[in-house]
User: Which sequence fits this backbone?
């Protein structure tokens, strides 16, 4: 977005300048930046996030405001007559799907968190009325926006570095399957590891997270954990894999799109962003539920199928950064042109 709108002001809630590229260091944080430990444990500040956006003075000296929001940023105050485009990664998961997300809260705090999320839903729906145009990162998220806010959304897929993630020369490919993602519950790494127990294929696991130690302790000998890897190594792993195995429901799923850009098929879940990324039969295989038996069968079927790497990579070009920037610029230009309506 900063490449699409290079002269824009950049506002945020909290940020760590040392952990970001230079282009982000001009960000203007909220008052939460002054809270001790805010950058290390921003999740603890969730109850204060709504106020952090509402106490700012309304943005008035702008042609348009663009928010990138997965929780509270869409609530930024905008002066009357200024159009607001919100790129919504998802309506706030904690608020709208608390039962699925409740395990992220300590057990003793869950009753309080449930009550807080009921208030968040009311607040989240109310602040959606200030958005001129919603943009969703997938069709699944567009449907959630409709259910949560009663609003239509234009789908613009997030940018994937398709110039970097490209097919290899074919040498040494197809020797293993790959999982890429954080080792946390909703990403379903435990399902992937369990599915490979007893299979005649290797599984390489890229990522770190809270489940790492328990997964390593229970994993079968054909599962290898690589931890965090740098981008060149990740590209090499994508290129060499028989398939990326990722049976989680994602808002979009950048790892799946990166694998496809490298010409690698995906074994995924028939839900969420995978429906926009994987063309079943041509670029991968989808399963109906996050089930060990279904996933094992899909892995076996994928291992026996021939995929065209060049075709998979060509279809992934719809996620190229240039297309994202062009689509966002067109949407912004349209809302500015309609500003007087």
Assistant:
């Amino acid at each position: 977005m900063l490449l699409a709108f290079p002269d824009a002001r950049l506002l945020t809630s909290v940020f760590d300048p040392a952990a970001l590229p230079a282009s982000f260091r001009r960000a203007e944080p909220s008052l939460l930046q002054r809270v001790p430990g805010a950058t290390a444990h921003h999740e603890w500040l969730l109850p204060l996030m709504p106020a952090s956006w509402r106490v700012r003075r309304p943005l008035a000296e702008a042609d348009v405001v663009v928010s990138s929001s997965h929780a509270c940023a869409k609530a930024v105050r905008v002066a009357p007559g200024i159009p607001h485009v919100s790129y919504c990664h998802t309506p706030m998961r904690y608020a709208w799907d608390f039962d699925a997300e409740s395990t992220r809260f300590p057990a003793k705090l869950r009753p309080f968190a449930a009550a807080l999320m009921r208030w968040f839903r009311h607040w989240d729906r109310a602040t959606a009325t200030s958005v001129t145009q919603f943009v969703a990162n997938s069709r699944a998220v567009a449907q959630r926006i409709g259910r949560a806010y009663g609003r239509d959304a234009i789908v613009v897929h997030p940018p994937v570095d398709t110039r970097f993630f490209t097919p290899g020369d074919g040498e040494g490919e197809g020797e293993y399957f790959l999982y890429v993602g954080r080792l946390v519950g909703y990403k379903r790494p435990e399902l992937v590891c369990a599915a490979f127990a007893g299979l005649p294929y290797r599984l390489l696991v890229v990522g770190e997270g809270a489940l790492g130690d328990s997964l390593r302790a229970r994993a079968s000998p054909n599962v290898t954990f690589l931890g965090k890897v740098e981008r060149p190594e990740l590209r090499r792993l994508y290129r060499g894999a028989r398939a990326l195995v990722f049976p989680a429901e994602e808002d979009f799923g950048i790892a799946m799109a990166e694998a496809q850009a490298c010409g690698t098929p995906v074994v995924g879940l028939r839900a969420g962003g995978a429906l926009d990324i994987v063309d079943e039969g041509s670029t991968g295989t989808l399963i109906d539920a996050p089930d060990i038996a279904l996933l094992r069968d899909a892995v076996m079927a994928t291992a026996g199928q021939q995929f065209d790497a060049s075709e998979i990579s060509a279809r992934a070009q719809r996620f190229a950064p240039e297309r994202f920037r062009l689509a966002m610029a067109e949407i912004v230009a349209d809302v500015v042109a309609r500003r007087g309506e």
User: Anything to note?
Assistant: DSSP finds 13 helices and ten strands in the chain. Residues 176-318 form a domain with the Rossmann fold fold (CATH 3.40.50.2000). The longest helix spans residues 110-127. The first strand starts at residue 65 and ends at 69.
